[in-house]
Amino acid sequence: MEPIRLAVNGRTDIGQVREENEDSIRWYSDQEQPFAYVIVADGMGGYSGGATASQIAADTLQHYLNGLLGDIFLSCSPQQQQLMLRAALIESINSANQRILDTKDTRPQFSQMGTTLVVAAVWQDFLIVAHIGDSRAYLWNNYGLQRLTRDHSVVQEMIDSGQLTPEQAQESQVRNHITRALGVSKQVEPAINSWTLTEDALLLLCSDGLTEYLDDHTIERVLATHRPALESVYLFIEDANRLGGRDNISAGILEFSSRSEAIMTPAEDAITLKPKKDDVTVRKS
C-alpha cells in the first residue's frame, strides 16, 4: 500500500446575527498513524442550551476516538480495526445522547436542548461517516462532489416524496425542522456508512449555517480550485457571512492523499440504519 497522508483543519464562526455560537467542532490527525477525524455538532434549545448540547456531543466523540489507537487496536487485523472503529462511533454517540439527557434532567433551563452531529473518521484507506440531523459530509475527488449524508429533515422527506424540489427546499419555511437529533429521546439512530478510499480526496463536514447559502455546485467549485485545500474552511465561512450569516457556521476539511489512482468504492460492510416511523420532529432555533 502506498503511504497515506492525512491532514485536517476546521473553523467555527458565530455568523452575523446570532448572539451565541451553538456549533461545536473538533478535528484531529495523528502524527504517527494514518488516522484522522472531524466532528461537527449544531446545537439547539435556547440560550446556552444548544451550545451545551453540541459541546457534550463533540467532547464525548473526541474522547472515544482519541482513545481508540491503543495496543489492542493496532494489533488487530484491518477488518477487526474497521469493526472497532464502527463500534466506537456507535458507543460514543449513545454515550453523548445519554449525557445530554442526563444534563437536561439536572438543569431544567436546558430542557429543550439537543444537537445535530456529523463525524467522519479515516483509518488507513477506510472512511466511516455517522450523522444525525442536517449537518452534512461531502467528498470531493477528481470525479466531482458526492454528498455522503442525507439530511434527517422535513424538507428532505418532502424532496424524497416529490413534494419539493431541492431549489424550493432552500426557501421553505420548514427548512430548519429536523426529524432526528441527539438529546431528544433514549433511542438514537445515526445513519452510518463506510467506504474504501482509493484516490486523493477532500472531505468537508459542515453545519447548515454553511449549506443555507452555498449550494453543492458552489461547494464543488471551491474544493476543486482553492489551494491549499485546508484553507477552504476560511473561504466557506467568509462567503456564508457575506451572504447573510443568519446562523452559526462551521466547516472542517480532511485531506486524504495517496498515490493510488482509482475511484472511491463502497466498503462491503457499508450500512445505513433505517429510520423508524416514530421519528420525532424538532425545530432548530
Can I get a quick summary?
The chain is an alpha+beta fold and 285 residues long.
Order of helices and strands: EEEHHHEEEEEHHEEEHHHEEE
Instruction: State the CATH architecture.
Output: 4-Layer Sandwich
The global form is: globular
Low-confidence stretches: 260-283
CATH topology: Phosphatase 2c, domain 1
Largest sheet properties? 7 strands, antiparallel
Q: Indicate the mean pLDDT.
A: 89
- What is the CATH superfamily? PPM-type phosphatase domain
Count the helices. How many?
8
CATH C-level class is Alpha Beta
Distance between the termini: 47 Å
Cα Rg: 18 Å
The domain count comes to 1
DSSP strand tally: 14
The proportion of strand residues reads 25-35%
User: What is the percent of helical residues?
Assistant: 25-40%
Primary descriptors:
Phosphatase 2c, domain 1, 32% helix, 14 strands, 285 residues, 5-stranded antiparallel β-sheet, alpha+beta, 8 helices
